[in-house]
C-alpha cells in the first residue's frame, strides 16, 4: 500500500510592486473602537497595503490582532507584547512573514524585525520613547534614550547582517530629521535620526522628493508641528522605491494624531 502524500499548499505569489504602510494608530485605534473598528478596516482595505506596520497596537494580543487583520485580508501577523509596556508595535501582511527578532530589552516600545518570505526584503518597525526626559521628569535626556533604542535596533538588524542589502526601517521615531529643516536650524535635536542615516539609511520621501536642507524639497507635509514618522530604506533598496508619501485623507485627519507613511517598492 502506497503512503498518502499531501499536496503542497501553494503560497500566494508576491506582486511585482509591494505597498507598505506604517501607521501610529493612536492607542489601539481608540477613536474607532466603539464602532468595532469598521472605519479602520474600511480604510485599510481602500489603500490595500501588502504589509502594514503598526505602532500603538494597544489592547491587541496575537489572536485579537489576527482576527482584526483578517478583516482587511492579512493572515500573517507578528506582535511584540511587553509585560511592562502598553504601546506595542506589530506587523500584519498579506504574504508570509519570517519573524527574525522581537526587540524588547532596554527599549520603551520595542521593535520587530521580519523578512518577507521568499524575498531578500527585511522590514523593521519601531516606536521610540516619546518624552523629553529619560530617568526622571525634567532631566532632558529623552534624545539620549532614543539614541540608545536606535542603536539597539541597528545593532540587532542592519549592522548584525551586513551582507543583507535590502532593508526598510519604519515607525514613529519621536525624532526629527535635519533634512526636513532649512540650513542653520539650531532649535532642534537631530542626533537620533543622524545615527539612522549614518548606518546607511535614507528617508524614502527624501530619496524621491528632495529635502529642505539642500533646497530640493518638492513635498508638502501638513503636520501640526513637526514630522516624526518615517520609512527609511537602505542604499540597495532605494532604486526599487517607486512611490513614497504621507497619506492625508478624511479618515487619517480624525482617527489618529499621526499621518501614516506609505512606500511602494519593486519586488524584482
Topology:
Blueprint: E1 17-24, H1 26-29, H2 38-47, E2 51-55, H3 62-70, E3 76-79, E4 90-93, E5 97-103, E6 111-116, E7 121-127, H4 142-156, E8 166-172, H5 191-198, E9 201-203, H6 204-209, E10 229-234, E11 241-246, H7 250-255, E12 261-266
Parallel strand pairs: 1-2, 7-8
Antiparallel strand pairs: 1-12, 2-4, 3-4, 5-6, 6-7, 8-10, 9-10, 11-12
Helix pairs in contact: 4-5
Organism: Sphingobacterium thermophilum
Domain Endonuclease/exonuclease/phosphatase: 21-258
InterPro entries: Endo/exonu/phosph_ase_sf, Endo/exonuclease/phosphatase, GPI-anchor_lipid_remodeler
Give the overall shape, derived from the CA principal axes.
Answer: globular
Strand order of the largest sheet: 3-4-2-1-12-11
What gyration radius follows from the Cα positions, in whole Å?
19 Å
The portion of residues assigned to helices is 10-25%
> So, CATH architecture?
4-Layer Sandwich
Poorly predicted tracts of residues: 1-5
CATH superfamily name? Endonuclease/exonuclease/phosphatase
What is the count of β-strands?
A: 12
Strand content: 25-35%
Biggest sheet statistics: 6 strands, mixed
What does the model show?
This is Endonuclease/exonuclease/phosphatase domain-containing protein. InterPro entries: Endo/exonu/phosph_ase_sf, Endo/exonuclease/phosphatase, GPI-anchor_lipid_remodeler. It comes from Sphingobacterium thermophilum. By secondary structure, the chain is of the alpha+beta class. The chain has helices at 26-29, 38-47, 62-70, 142-156, 191-198, 204-209, 250-255; strands spanning 17-24, 51-55, 76-79, 90-93, 97-103, 111-116, 121-127, 166-172, 201-203, 229-234, 241-246, 261-266. Strand 6 (111-116) and strand 7 form a beta hairpin. The termini are far apart. Residues 1-5 have low confidence and may be disordered.
Amino acid at each position: 500500500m502506497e503512503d498518502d502524500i499531501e499536496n503542497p499548499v501553494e503560497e500566494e505569489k508576491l506582486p511585482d510592486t509591494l505597498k507598505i504602510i506604517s501607521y501610529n494608530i493612536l492607542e489601539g485605534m481608540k477613536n474607532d473602537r466603539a464602532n468595532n473598528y469598521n472605519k479602520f478596516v474600511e480604510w485599510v482595505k481602500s489603500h490595500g497595503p501588502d504589509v502594514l506596520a503598526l505602532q500603538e497596537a494597544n489592547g491587541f494580543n496575537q489572536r485579537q490582532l489576527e482576527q482584526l487583520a483578517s478583516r482587511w485580508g492579512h493572515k500573517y501577523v507578528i506582535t511584540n507584547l511587553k509585560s511592562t509596556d502598553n504601546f506595542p508595535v506589530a506587523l500584519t501582511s498579506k504574504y508570509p512573514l519570517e519573524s527574525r527578532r522581537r526587540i524588547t530589552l532596554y527599549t520603551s516600545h520595542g521593535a520587530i524585525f521580519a523578512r518577507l518570505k521568499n524575498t531578500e526584503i527585511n522590514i523593521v518597525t519601531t516606536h521610540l520613547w516619546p518624552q523629553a526626559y529619560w530617568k526622571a521628569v525634567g532631566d532632558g535626556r529623552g534624545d539620549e534614550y532614543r539614541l540608545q533604542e536606535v542603536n539597539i535596533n541597528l545593532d540587532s538588524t542592519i549592522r548584525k547582517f551586513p551582507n543583507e542589502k535590502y532593508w526598510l526601517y519604519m515607525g514613529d521615531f519621536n525624532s526629527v530629521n535635519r533634512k526636513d529643516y532649512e540650513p542653520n536650524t539650531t532649535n532642534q535635536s537631530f542626533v537620533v535620526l543622524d545615527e539612522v542615516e549614518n548606518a546607511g539609511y535614507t528617508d524614502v520621501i527624501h530619496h524621491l522628493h528632495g529635502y529642505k536642507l539642500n533646497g530640493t524639497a518638492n513635498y508638502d507635509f501638513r503636520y501640526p508641528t513637526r514630522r516624526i514618522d518615517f520609512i527609511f530604506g537602505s542604499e540597495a533598496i532605494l532604486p526599487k522605491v517607486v512611490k513614497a508619501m504621507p497619506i492625508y485623507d478624511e479618515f487619517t485627519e480624525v482617527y489618529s494624531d499621526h499621518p501614516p507613511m506609505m512606500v511602494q517598492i519593486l519586488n524584482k
